[in-house]
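Write out this protein's structure.
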Amino acid sequence: MELTKEQIQHIESYLASKDFDYIDLKPEILDHMISDVEQFMDKNNTFEDAFARVRIRWEKHFRETSSFFFGMLYANSKIVVNKAVKQFKKYYVLYLASYFSPFVFLKFVPITFSETTVNFTNGFLFSFSLAMLGYMAFIIIKTSFSKVKTTYHFILKTQYFGLILLVMGLAVGIFKDTGELNPVFTGFVCGGYAVVFICHHFYKKHEEAIEKYKIV
């Protein structure tokens, strides 16, 4: 049995009461809930009874939860967190690899450069890192002023703290006094660049979702 506009509005109001306004998820969840209500109504249940059963069925999906991938500080509804984890898993591996790969490599294969090379590299990395931090400041400001929620925006917020790796790498430098690459701080800088890349990716996904659903 197909629902009326008023009945669909009841379901939309329920989603609003759950503060579930993620534009990349809401249409899909709304369709699922409408379908569930229609199935119950096909079994001679009234809309009120069918909707009550569907609310009970979906209640667990709106409960706040967190994930190992984002940490306990970043909790959200189970639906949002599950999709975020699915989107983020491979980038989490990239993040870990970007730090541990140079760290482990340089621990076993020390590399030393001349003073000229060290000075040039330090200057280049300082300029490039400042540019990356400037770009991240743009992303943070742009998304902070936007009231539009997406799963990608949720992921973005969980990654900003990782920029401290890049700041620490900048502050200390990746070279020891001898001209040898410091494994720890080289790993920090590489990890920081990975955070910038990850944030760039999910910022673009966030913007694409806004464009797709025509949100201004």
